[in-house]
Design a protein that fits this description.
Elements (H helix, E strand, L loop, with lengths): L18 H15 L3 H14 L4 H13 L3 H14 L4 H13 L3 H14 L4 H13 L3 H14 L4 H13 L3 H14 L4 H13 L3 H14 L4 H13 L3 H14 L4 H13 L3 H14 L4 H13 L3 H14 L6 H11 L6 H13 L7 H5 L5 H15 L18 E7 L6 H12 L5 E7 L7 H9 L2 E4 L5 H10 L4 E4 L9 H5 L5 E4 L14 E5 L14 E5 L29 E3 L9 H13 L4 E5 L3 H13 L7 E4 L5 H8 L4 E3 L8 H8 L4 E2 L10 H8 L10 H13 L1 H14 L8 H20 L7 E2 L6
Parallel strand pairs: 1-2, 1-4, 2-3, 4-5, 5-6, 6-7, 7-13, 8-9, 8-11, 9-10, 11-12
Helix pairs in contact: 1-2, 2-3, 3-4, 4-5, 5-6, 6-7, 7-8, 7-9, 8-9, 9-10, 9-11, 10-11, 11-12, 11-13, 12-13, 13-14, 13-15, 14-15, 15-16, 15-17, 16-17, 17-18, 18-19, 19-20, 23-24, 23-34, 27-32, 32-33
């Protein structure tokens, strides 16, 4: 508070106070300055007894009352003071400060303007006026006010710092940094300036520098929850999740009611796959801030990760009831319902999401969307929305047109799934068979090291295996650029825990997506997608941001060296001793009520048959059993296989099935090749998207095109014929068994040569400076 008596002189008719009043007022003011507020108050009141309209006593007593937390009383006294003496700039200034504390910002602004009208060079009024404008989100006007304050007092560290904070809000981050620099030059021990500087650096993507600025601020204010929370957020962006959790923990200790810190800690714990702890952190956030949408979203996601799907669905409904347009909320609700096989209201939810995607809204993640969409155009739009929202191309690409002179083409494979994962299982044999005289292979892994046999196998398969878990996108991209990668191949796409932000920095001249995601990434910084003419027919090329590198058989790699353990008995596998065994070992989110209708009709028509399914969480299992009962099928006809860790044991028990029934619109991918390798025929009905044509792709490459049904009617008829005709089934299985050693699908070496031919074709065109163009590798090309 300013307690000066500056202004433009007394009002007309002003009479100076008696000497006793002046003496008492000076004594009161002296005590006030010394912090002896009770004594000062008593003397101010003595003055007012002697002269009830003494403007200075009213003013100073109003200041004192406000300092004691009695703002309404203080404001009333100062209002009386300015009524008596409307020329007191100091009174208007202090009145404005009280109003600002009371969040009456428009009135505070008007009072600062009154003070400045009386005293144009009132630096503090200009500075605080700018702060009020900032609070009102009138950032440009705030900067102008701070500029006037700085012109008047060029050594004002606070004005420079406040100006910078408003510049951050305007997105003028470079100017903000310069303003923070000036503030710190004047007063180097300013934690507010260091904190703001960290925010500006974070906004510019200079994360390590931001971290240093936050640490400098913390050295001065070690228990400031805001600094600790923003520091944790930067650590999350650097993928240093353990350190981020520690920073958020410190923020919560400093302020247990800090909902943002609790929510952000939950997000970091989700990345660390510590879902139970994340759930508790989201609950703590919501206890402090009920209805906090981001915490509701995180809570629903944590429940899904914990396989508590009923609770997750309820949590997503609470979120959407609070905020119907929460980004990706409708899609996550649908995905959780799909995983739980909860199909109530499904058609309406799907229709709403499709409509939203077509309108360009953030409705669903691409992975959730392809499970219910039968439109490649819609899938492409969904991918573009995500890329534009979260993974825009860098304005400063790391690769600037360099051409490298390597003896071998340098391939960098980028993935979070280098471990016991379906992607690794499919492609491990390819890595081992790359022609090392022509290609140098490097793995860059940003997923957790699961210590599995597959992880060890992959580490042996590459020339170099580099773990970049815990490194930021910028660090990962810089490492790829430093490796002088000729081609970087992303194997994760837009699936869970993807990191397209690495490719967005353009670390290599040729960037390719392959295998992990069945569709376009929708990003112009990805040059090619590896596919085949079945999954991406020429008519669909227009929906792809990438050019299509078309392999001659299936785009799906397989490992012809996979072992199959000794075959168990039906009883050991939990199957009935007799009867036809339909199986569908897809993820439950690929199941749909339309396809399930067909499966149940097949069980009705094929006496003693069963449907063999993978183990699911209790919610999905319960819902499927209920859906079966609703369709007149006893729950005993659905058999759920327990999880087995060994791939060889899984293939062995899978061989007990008679026919694998595919899903639509999202087909089986690795599950289909598993079944075929185990000698089980796969029946599919193609859809109109990449994800829905994979079954057809692998069956044609396996030499079994007759199992590609043209319609749902044909799909059902073929399945029923095989269930009722043991000879036809035996003949089909014999045909499949005979082709396993010779068909293109399980020719890992041949697939590798074709893939290498695709790499060579795109690299040669790139080396010659040509634009990327779609092309097809011929059967003989290798």
């Amino acid at each position: 508070m300013n307690s000066g008596i500056a202004g433009k002189g007394p009002p007309p008719g002003y009479a100076p106070p008696p000497p006793q009043v002046i003496q008492t007022l000076r004594q009161a003011w002296g005590l006030h300055q010394q912090g002896q507020l009770s004594q000062a108050e008593a003397l101010y009141r003595d003055v007012l007894k002697m002269q009830p309209d003494n403007a200075d006593a009213l003013h100073f007593l109003g200041v004192l009352q406000s300092q004691q937390g009695r703002r309404e009383a203080g404001l009333s006294l100062i209002d009386r003071a300015v009524a008596v003496n409307p020329r007191s700039a100091a009174a208007f200034y202090n009145r404005a400060g009280i109003l600002r504390d009371m969040k009456r910002l428009e009135e505070a602004l008007e009072s600062y303007d009154r003070a400045l009208a009386l005293k144009a060079d009132h630096h503090a009024a200009l500075n605080n006026r700018g702060a009020v404008l900032h609070d009102l989100k009138r950032y440009s006007e705030a900067v102008q006010s701070f500029d006037r304050a700085i012109a008047m007092k060029p050594d004002s560290a606070d004005a420079f710092s406040n100006r910078a904070i408003s510049l951050v809000e305007l997105g003028r981050l470079d100017e903000a940094l310069e303003s923070f620099r000036r503030s710190l030059e004047i007063a180097g021990d300013n934690p507010t300036a260091q904190f703001g500087r960290g925010n500006a650096l974070s906004g510019l993507g200079q994360l390590e520098e931001a971290l240093s600025a936050y640490d400098a601020a913390l050295s001065l204010m070690p228990y400031d929850a805001r600094i600790l929370t923003n520091r944790g957020t930067v650590l999350v962006r650097l993928n240093r999740y353990e350190q981020a959790v520690d920073s958020f923990n410190r923020a919560v200790i400093a302020d247990p009611q800090d909902a943002e810190a609790c929510k952000s800690r939950g997000d970091a714990l989700i990345h660390l796959r510590r879902a139970s702890e994340a759930l508790a952190s989201y609950d703590q956030a919501l206890a402090s801030r009920p209805g906090y949408a981001e915490a509701l979203y995180g809570r629903a996601h944590a429940l899904s990760e914990l396989k508590r799907d009923d609770e997750s669905i309820a949590a997503y409904r609470v979120l959407l009831g609070t905020r119907p347009d929460h980004p990706y909320g409708p899609g996550m609700l649908l995905h959780t319902k799909q995983t739980a096989c909860d199909w109530q209201g499904r058609a309406a939810i799907v229709a709403d999401i499709v409509q939203g995607v077509r309108a360009g809204r953030r409705m669903a993640s691409p992975l959730a969307f392809v499970a219910v969409s039968d439109s490649e155009q819609d899938n492409a739009q969904c991918a573009r929305i995500l890329i534009e929202d979260k993974f825009k191309a860098s304005a400063e690409p790391l690769w600037r047109g360099e051409r490298y002179r390597h003896d071998r083409t340098r391939l960098v494979y980028l993935s979070c799934d280098f471990g016991a994962h379906a992607v690794a299982t499919q492609i491990a044999g390819v890595f081992e068979r790359h022609d090392r005289t022509r290609f140098e292979t490097i793995a860059m892994s940003y997923g957790q090291n699961d210590q599995s046999e597959m992880r060890a196998r992959l580490e042996r398969a590459f020339d170099r295996f580099i773990d970049i878990q815990g490194k930021s996108d910028g660090e990962g991209a810089s490492q790829i650029r430093g490796l002088e990668a000729d081609i970087v191949i992303d194997l994760t796409g837009l699936t869970a825990r993807c990191r397209p932000g690495i490719l967005a920095l353009r670390p290599a001249g040729l960037q390719v997506q392959f295998l992990g995601f069945a569709g376009t990434l929708g990003a112009d910084y990805v040059d090619y997608v590896i596919a085949d003419s079945v999954v991406i027919p020429e008519a669909d090329h227009k929906h792809y941001a990438e050019k299509v590198a078309c392999l001659p058989n299936s785009y799906m790699p397989t490992d012809c060296g996979r072992a199959i353990a000794a075959r168990p008995s039906r009883a050991e596998a939990g199957l009935p001793e007799t009867g036809f065994v339909f199986c569908a070992f897809n993820n439950s989110y690929k199941f749909s009520p339309d396809v399930f209708d067909i499966w149940m009709r097949l069980l009705k028509a094929a006496e003693n048959s069963v449907l063999w399914l993978p183990k699911m969480n209790d919610t999905a299992r319960r819902n499927l059993l209920r859906e079966a009962e609703t369709r007149g099928i006893s729950s005993e006809r659905l058999v759920f296989a327990p999880y087995v860790a060994s791939g060889a044991e899984h293939l062995a028990r899978l061989s007990l099935a008679d026919l694998f029934l595919d899903t639509r619109p999202y087909n089986a991918h690795s599950s289909a090749t598993d079944a075929l390798w185990a000698g089980v025929p796969v029946l599919t009905q193609p859809g109109d998207t990449f994800a829905g044509r994979v079954g057809a792709s692998v069956l044609k490459a396996c030499g079994l095109p007759e199992l590609v049904a043209e319609s749902s009617v044909s799909y059902e008829a073929i399945a029923l014929q095989l269930a009722r005709n043991p000879d036809a089934l035996s003949e089909l299985k014999a045909k499949l068994t005979g082709k396993l050693a010779t068909c293109a699908l399980f020719d890992t070496a041949g697939f590798t040569r074709h893939l290498e031919a695709a790499y060579a074709t795109m690299y040669e065109s790139h080396r010659r400076g040509r634009e990327a163009q779609s092309f097809t590798i011929s059967q003989m090309q290798s």
